[in-house]
Amino acid sequence: MSTSRAMDATGAEDTAPNTMMETDLNAVDNNKQDRVNNMNSVEPVKIEIIWSIVLFFVFGHLSAIYGLYLMFTSTKLLTTFYGICSWILSGLGVTAGLHRLWSHKSYKAKLPLRFILMLMSTMAFENHIYEWCMDHRIHHKYTDTNSDPHNAKRGFFFSHIGWLVVRRHPDYYDKCLKIDMSDLKKDPIVMYQKKFYIPLLLLFCFIIPTIVPVYFWDETYVNAFFTSTMLRYIFTLNMTWLVNSAAHIWGKRPYDESINPSENLSVSLGALGEGWHNYHHVFPWDYKAAELGNYRANLTTAFIDFFSLIGWAYDMKVVSNDMVLKRANRTGDGSHPDGSHPDGDGIWGWDDSNISIEDRKLTTVINKKDD
């Protein structure tokens, strides 16, 4: 998740060796060691607090607490329901849009759906698409190292919110110049939002959510602003942040026990399906972001599947059961019905050059179409 300073980067690709064949264990080990050597610099961690962002989050959380109080004392029930619907819409903008579509390219979306997801993600106000995805791709390539913007090894508070209120580690800026962002630079929806992000976020995150209850059912401005706007906004932020913090600390690791990301049902409920995090870090190109045969705690998958029925979502990548079981057996912690043992990959999504040919061949693409 990202709510930080906007920063451009070149489209140059990472120069790490592209040796990630599942069947070549020596190559996997070599690649893992190469990543460890390059990701943990001797540059000491320096804490430089950005007080303007601290004040913004303090005001935001105090406003949300007041909104919660108003929700139980004076806010109309319809306003509360509207706030919940706004949370789901903005959350899906993050999960189905920023995360699974633009960061990982786990499926493709036609222009109308991309435009809708852009507006929904703008309502969430977690930074514009381009930088959110750059942060997230770096997070996957260099998970829990100094290059990772929300390195969970620096503690729960840092990975939850602290990373947003301090200057980034120098290793992060180095990786910004190397991570491949060329696909997003070619997307007109992404570039449009990046250019007009401030007026768009003011309109869709704060102004419209406040005006709608006042105009349509005579809610007070105070109730509308603090309940349907600020409480909804801060709640959405924290649900996203829990994926960075709680889902990197607590839970089982059935697919790869050597990495911190974990399977966490509670986070999945709050983050609309993004808490199956050990699976997701091992198979980030799977559009379900989970090994689930249904929509249990994964509303985002149901959302994408709905739009696939009308043809707006297509080329949805799915990892086969054979590939999942093979990986669980080789690197999991044993909590999967068939899994155990350690070895991590660093892959940001579908077009990452480190995906092996074997993994590509074993990936199923649903509703495939030619662009």
From TrEMBL:
Query: Which UniProt keywords are given for this protein, alphabetically ordered?
Result: Fatty acid biosynthesis, Fatty acid metabolism, Iron, Lipid biosynthesis, Lipid metabolism, Membrane, Oxidoreductase, Transmembrane, Transmembrane helix
Its subcellular locations are:
Membrane
InterPro entries documented for this protein? Acyl-CoA_DS, FA_desaturase_dom
Residue spans crossing the bilayer: 49-69, 81-99, 196-216, 222-243
Describe its membrane topology: Multi-pass membrane protein
Its GO CC terms are:
endoplasmic reticulum membrane
| GO BP, sorted A to Z | unsaturated fatty acid biosynthetic process
Family per UniProt?
Belongs to the fatty acid desaturase type 1 family.
Record note on domains: The histidine box domains are involved in binding the catalytic metal ions.
Protein name from the UniProt record: Fatty acid desaturase domain-containing protein
Please list the GO terms describing molecular function. iron ion binding; stearoyl-CoA 9-desaturase activity
Q: Which CDD domains does the record match to this protein?
A: Delta9-FADS-like
**Organism, scientific name:** Macrosiphum euphorbiae
Lineage top rank: taxon = Eukaryota
Query: Fatty acid desaturase domain: which residues?
Result: 81-284
**Cofactors demanded by this protein:** Fe(2+)
